[in-house]
Amino acid sequence: MATYKVSVVVIDSDHPGAIVNLDSYPKPGETLMLNGEAFLVVETLELMPPREDFYYLHVTCRPIEKVGH
After folding, report:
1. How far is CA 22 from the centre of its chain?
2. 67: pLDDT strictly greater than 70
3. What is the mean pLDDT of the chain?
4. Which among 19, 50, 54, 55 has most CB atoms closer than 10 A?
5. Is the pLDDT confidence value at 31 over 60?
6. Which residues of 29-41 are buried (b: 16+ CB within 10 A; e: fewer)?
7. Is the pTM of this model over 0.85?
8. Contact 32, 18 (CB under 8 A)
């Protein structure tokens, strides 16, 4: 099973971002959850070629506005 090691940068927010392990490739348009907060994936870049079952990615995302706020 592949492991995606992902560096996350959040734009349009004061969120500090994160480095997370994911079980699936984060695609633009998908929702990424970080500590219970929802973010929209804007861009995904491969940082280096995969090694064995590890993929190294960088993701840019932005907060998803909560309904009613």
Report:
1. 9
2. no
3. 93
4. 55
5. yes
6. eeebebeeeebeb
7. yes
8. no
Nearest to 4 by CA among 41, 64, 62, 63: 41
Angle at 15 between CA 14 and CA 16, to 5 degrees: 110
pLDDT of residue 65: 78
Largest CA distance in the chain: 45
Q: Which residue has the tokens 């927010």?
A: 13
Cβ atoms within 10 Å, residue 68:
4
Q: For residues 33 and 42, what is the distance between their CA atoms, to the nearest angstrom?
A: 14
The whole-number pLDDT of residue 68 equals 52
